C-alpha cells in the first residue's frame, strides 16, 4: 500500500497572535498571498502523494480549511479533514486519528513547512532502509531562527536560536542521538553505553528537525498507545525511538549500572565534533551493519529497529512558519531568494497583479508582491514587502519590509516599516508604524505613532 500522509495543520497559535484569528486560522495565513498550507500540499502533489489526512485544531478552523482545500485542489488530491481539540500536541493529534491510519507507512508533515525538498524523497529513503522512522533534517538558516525581534533592516540580523544537537553515524544515514529546544543549553550529555555501541558518532548543531517524518505505522501506533504521556512527535516520540533503537545484551549485563549511566559531555559550540572511539576495538564501519556479535566478539548485540535521517541539500530552502519573525522572513524569502517556490506554483507572473493600479511617481522595488485589485496613490514607495488583494493605499505612503494582507485601507502619508497589517485593517492618515502587528479589522486613528506594539480588537 502507498504512503498515507498526515498533514498537521494546526489552528490557533499563541506565537502568532494577533495574526491568527477565528476568520484566519494558522493554515490560511498568507505567504506571498497564498495560504501557507498551499506550499505543503503542492509539494505532496508533485511527489504523487495524494492520499491525505489534514488535521486541524478546532471545528470552526477545520471547516474554513476544508472549504479552501475543496475549492483549490478539487479533483487533484484525496483529502480528509479531521478536527481535533486545540493544544492536543502533535502526538495527541496522531492518537486522535489513529483509527484512520491503515497504510504500512505514514508520512507526517507540518502544515507550516515551506520547503522545496520533495516529500517523496523522504518516503523513498524510509522504504529503502526499512526504518521505523526517518526524519528530514535541513540546514539551520544562516541568520538563525528567532522567536522575536525586529523584522526591519535590509538584512536579517536575528540572533541564533537554540541549538539542535544531532548525532549521526559516519555515513550520515542513521539518527543516533537528538536533543532539541529546552533540552539544550551549553552542553548536552550522551550515554557512554551508546557511544561504546556505535564506536563513532558525528555530532551536528547546524541541522534542524524540519518536522517531516516517515513512520512505520505499526511501531508508531504501538508507541503512542503504550506511552500515553508522550505529547510531541519532535520532542517526545522521535527521541524515544532514537534512544531505544539499540539494546546490547552484552553491555546491559556486563557494565555496572553506575558506569552504564555515565555521561559524556559534548560541547554544542562545535559545528561538527567527531566523538572518538570509546573502546579500542569499536571500529565498525556503520552502526547498522548486519553484525551478530558485539565489538569484542563476546556476545550478540540485539538491535530493535532503525532510525534514519534524510539530510536535505544545503542549497534547499526549508523554513517553518512558527513565529511572527518567521512569518516575515518567509514572505520576504518567497518573493526574493526563494522565488522559485513562487514561480513553480503560479499560473502567471503575479508579483504585480494584472488589475493593480499605481499612481504617478509610485515605485515598487524588487522582491515585492502586489495582489490583484489593489490600488496605490501618487508618490508611494514599496520595498521588500507583500501587499495583498483589493487594498486601497493613498498617496505619499511608504511600505518597507512589511506584509499587508487583503482588503486593507491605508490613508495618505502613512509610513509602515517591519510590520504586519492583517486583513480589513484601516490605517487613517499619517499613521507611523515600526515593528508592529495590527490584528484583523483594527482601526488606527489618524496621526498615531507606534513602535513594537501589537494592536488588536478585543475578542467578544
Automatic annotation (TrEMBL):
<dbReference type="InterPro" id="IPR056764">
    <property type="entry name" value="LbH_EIF2B3/5"/>
</dbReference>
<feature type="domain" description="Nucleotidyl transferase">
    <location>
        <begin position="5"/>
        <end position="147"/>
    </location>
</feature>
<dbReference type="Pfam" id="PF25084">
    <property type="entry name" value="LbH_EIF2B"/>
</dbReference>
<dbReference type="InterPro" id="IPR051960">
    <property type="entry name" value="eIF2B_gamma"/>
</dbReference>
<dbReference type="GO" id="GO:0003743">
    <property type="term" value="F:translation initiation factor activity"/>
</dbReference>
<comment type="function">
    <text>Acts as a component of the translation initiation factor 2B (eIF2B) complex, which catalyzes the exchange of GDP for GTP on the eukaryotic initiation factor 2 (eIF2) complex gamma subunit. Its guanine nucleotide exchange factor activity is repressed when bound to eIF2 complex phosphorylated on the alpha subunit, thereby limiting the amount of methionyl-initiator methionine tRNA available to the ribosome and consequently global translation is repressed.</text>
</comment>
<comment type="subunit">
    <text>Component of the translation initiation factor 2B (eIF2B) complex which is a heterodecamer of two sets of five different subunits: alpha, beta, gamma, delta and epsilon. Subunits alpha, beta and delta comprise a regulatory subcomplex and subunits epsilon and gamma comprise a catalytic subcomplex. Within the complex, the hexameric regulatory complex resides at the center, with the two heterodimeric catalytic subcomplexes bound on opposite sides.</text>
</comment>
<dbReference type="InterPro" id="IPR005835">
    <property type="entry name" value="NTP_transferase_dom"/>
</dbReference>
<keyword id="KW-0648">Protein biosynthesis</keyword>
<keyword id="KW-0963">Cytoplasm</keyword>
<dbReference type="GO" id="GO:0005829">
    <property type="term" value="C:cytosol"/>
</dbReference>
<dbReference type="InterPro" id="IPR029044">
    <property type="entry name" value="Nucleotide-diphossugar_trans"/>
</dbReference>
<feature type="domain" description="EIF2B subunit epsilon/gamma LbH">
    <location>
        <begin position="354"/>
        <end position="445"/>
    </location>
</feature>
<protein>
    <recommendedName>
        <fullName>Translation initiation factor eIF2B subunit gamma</fullName>
    </recommendedName>
</protein>
<dbReference type="Pfam" id="PF00483">
    <property type="entry name" value="NTP_transferase"/>
</dbReference>
<keyword id="KW-0396">Initiation factor</keyword>
<comment type="similarity">
    <text>Belongs to the eIF-2B gamma/epsilon subunits family.</text>
</comment>
